């Protein structure tokens, strides 16, 4: 049974015709202490927003307002908020900090963005993106195996792939797209929970919130 989970429980992805099983770990955005990327150089599992904030604060020339979209200090305060999560900038920083490629698969477009590729790192981790948040992917040796046997870090081979696990991940993403297990943030319809006005897409929702102060939206079809 294929599904994506951002909950506390692991969800097993049974890939027909393959001995391996892919699983989704809880949301990286919501559960920042997952051993997804491994540990830092001191062997300590880090809280990812703290890694990002420290990196950005250490180089204000590189991470300037034009690059971040907001002043350096303001960004650092923003990113450590547990309700916030970024995208390309943050994943690029994490890839370089841990010295591992990060493959981020987008369910809606089937696109895979590979961070750290130019560094030719020897290991890779994987994410799947549903339009609202990222979930980390792992591989379990068999159904019912304890969580400590999950594999989240994969060796990059000479052809710059990670072997069969890469194909399994892509098949999973395709199945999630077929099931429409994603949110189209550019075109989804929302209704303001305060004034009941309908808006289309994230852009209109942000504009409505800025104009009215209303921040309670519900998706409807």
UniProtKB/TrEMBL annotation:
Subcellular location: Cytoplasm
E.C. numbers: 3.4.19.12
GO biological process: endoplasmic reticulum unfolded protein response; ERAD pathway; protein deubiquitination
Entry keyword annotation includes Protein biosynthesis: no
Keyword Metal-binding tagged: no
Catalysed reaction, written as an equation: Thiol-dependent hydrolysis of ester, thioester, amide, peptide and isopeptide bonds formed by the C-terminal Gly of ubiquitin (a 76-residue protein attached to proteins as an intracellular targeting signal)
Broad class of the protein's primary localization: cytoplasm
Gene Ontology molecular function terms on file: cysteine-type deubiquitinase activity
UniProt keyword terms in alphabetical order: Cytoplasm, Hydrolase, Protease, Thiol protease, Ubl conjugation pathway
GO cellular component terms listed in the entry, alphabetical order: cytosol; nucleus
Domain OTU1-like C-terminal C2H2-type zinc finger: from-to ranges: 186-220
Function: Hydrolase that can remove conjugated ubiquitin from proteins and may therefore play an important regulatory role at the level of protein turnover by preventing degradation.
Designated name of the protein: Ubiquitin thioesterase OTU
Annotated organism of origin: Populus tomentosa
